[in-house]
């Protein structure tokens, strides 16, 4: 099947106008669009028969589909991709919507988590979709690590960060572990990790164990690797990095039972934080809004949904999180893209200001 770019080049002026009007009408109504409806919407008078011929050509290109022989046409995923990339006109956020975004986010009260929760609530309310906010990683440097024996088969690794947080993990120590091996492992970790973040831990530990292998006996080396592994699951920012609001917006108005079940599966995945790393990866290819339609993003392919997502950055222009909106593939992209873009910019400034 032709790529969206080559398909757009294949469209003459009339075909492009019919295609544009059909997709815009579908995004407004959610219903198949017939030739008579399009005849009333086109700027130039064109017969319904001519429009039907154009629609057949567009269907041959893979841009349209017909749910029934006698029904109108719907844009395919390829057609929506073509429309979003080559035809969609994205305007600015309206004055009313800009004021609503700023009112919701620019309150002086609340820390960063409160700002991000308000951002998620505002986005779901303003777009009538479900909102996603991926919060920044916890990047506080490590201050101290210690191993504590609790018995022959139980031990604790305690981690203190520079911002004063203290966390611990319970684990089963290797057989034959001695107090001296625990001290040696803790001293080794503190020497190489002080001032580092959790995200840097695994790479530093692996490199230093290889470089300084002679300084550690086998038990101490096992303990060092165990301690790093216990904190590795937190190196992606922990289990509460994803805020989801507006689940009910996707469930409402979807009468088809199979569609409802796919949407429930989507949110079950989100609640379990499945593919969380992938969600941030979607934003890493550069600043700006990205639109994923249907199966273009495996996280949302089951639900037949679209995702409009944009990263937000700190003062050093480093991507630290993302905001987005999930909705049906017939989203009002022209309205939602600038809303997500403006929200991401404002969230970045506010989070940096409280960083």
TrEMBL record:
Q: Residue ranges of the Heat-inducible transcription repressor HrcA C-terminal domain?
A: 115-337
Q: Transmembrane ranges?
A: none
Q: Name one GO biological process term.
A: negative regulation of DNA-templated transcription
Instruction: Name the InterPro entries for this protein.
Output: GAF-like_dom_sf, HrcA, HrcA_C, WH-like_DNA-bd_sf, WH_DNA-bd_sf, WHTH_HrcA_DNA-bd, WHTH_transcript_rep_HrcA_IDD
Molecular function, one GO term: DNA binding
Q: The Winged helix-turn-helix transcription repressor HrcA DNA-binding domain covers which part of the protein?
A: 11-66
Q: Which keywords are on file for this protein?
A: Repressor, Stress response, Transcription, Transcription regulation
* Role played: Negative regulator of class I heat shock genes (grpE-dnaK-dnaJ and groELS operons). Prevents heat-shock induction of these operons.
Family indicated by similarity: Belongs to the HrcA family.
- Please state what the protein is called: Heat-inducible transcription repressor HrcA
Q: Which organism is it from?
A: Amaricoccus macauensis
The encoding gene: hrcA
């Amino acid at each position: 099947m032709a790529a969206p770019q080559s398909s757009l080049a294949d469209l003459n002026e009339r075909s492009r106008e019919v295609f544009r009007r059909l997709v815009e009408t579908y995004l407004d109504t959610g219903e198949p669009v017939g030739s008579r409806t399009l005849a009333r919407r086109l700027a130039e008078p064109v017969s319904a028969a001519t429009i039907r011929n154009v629609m057949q050509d567009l269907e041959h290109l893979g841009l349209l589909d017909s749910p029934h022989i006698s029904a109108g046409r719907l844009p395919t995923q390829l057609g929506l991709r073509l429309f979003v990339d080559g035809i969609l006109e994205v305007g600015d956020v309206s004055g009313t919507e800009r004021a609503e975004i700023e009112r919701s986010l620019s309150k002086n009260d609340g820390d960063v988590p409160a700002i991000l929760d308000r951002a998620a609530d505002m986005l779901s309310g303003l777009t009538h979709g479900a909102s996603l906010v991926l919060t920044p990683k916890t990047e506080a440097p490590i201050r101290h690590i210690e191993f504590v024996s609790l018995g022959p088969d139980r031990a604790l690794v305690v981690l203190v960060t520079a911002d004063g947080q203290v966390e611990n993990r319970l684990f089963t120590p290797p057989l034959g572990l001695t107090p001296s091996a625990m001290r040696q492992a803790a001293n080794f970790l503190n020497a190489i990790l002080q001032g580092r973040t959790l995200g840097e831990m695994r790479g530093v530990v692996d490199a230093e164990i290889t470089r300084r292998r002679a300084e550690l006996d086998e038990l101490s080396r096992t303990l060092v690797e165990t301690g790093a592994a216990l904190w590795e699951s937190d190196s992606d920012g922990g289990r509460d990095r994803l805020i989801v609001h507006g689940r009910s917006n996707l469930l409402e108005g979807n009468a088809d039972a199979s569609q409802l079940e796919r949407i429930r599966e989507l949110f079950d995945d989100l609640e379990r934080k499945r593919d969380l790393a992938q969600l941030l990866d979607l934003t890493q290819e550069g600043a700006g809004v990205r639109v994923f339609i249907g199966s273009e993003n495996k996280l949302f392919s089951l639900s037949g949904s679209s995702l409009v997502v944009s990263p937000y950055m700190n003062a050093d222009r480093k991507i630290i999180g993302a905001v987005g909106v999930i909705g049906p593939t017939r989203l009002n992209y022209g309205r939602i893209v600038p809303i997500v873009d403006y929200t991401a910019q404002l969230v970045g400034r506010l989070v940096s200001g409280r960083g």
